[in-house]
Design goal:
Number of helices: 3
Number of domains: 2
Helix content: 40-55%
Shape: rod-shaped
Number of strands: 0
Structural class: mainly alpha
């Protein structure tokens, strides 16, 4: 694809100088820079995370961790009492 771009003089010179240092044509240098810019936006970098753990007795007996409503209800009963009583 052929296109025309308008650059500030200083930026254009810096880009041309870097292209020469890399042994690339100006067009190839700009194409590579464009690809890198698009790739960095499309694939977010994975950041390290800290696994948060706790000590204690673990979960309450009979609680299925796949049923979040049950977990919330059990916690509510623990802190606020049984609403049926």
């Amino acid at each position: 694809m052929r296109t025309t771009i308008i650059l500030e003089d200083e930026l254009g010179e810096r880009l041309r100088k870097q292209a020469r240092q890399d042994g690339k044509s100006f067009s190839a240098f700009l194409a590579d820079a464009g690809r890198r810019a698009l790739e960095s936006r499309s694939s977010p970098r994975k950041t390290a995370f800290a696994l948060i753990t706790f000590r204690g007795d673990g979960t309450f007996a009979g609680i299925d961790l796949d049923k979040t409503n049950e977990i919330i209800a059990t916690e509510d009963r623990t802190f606020y009492g049984d609403p049926v009583k």
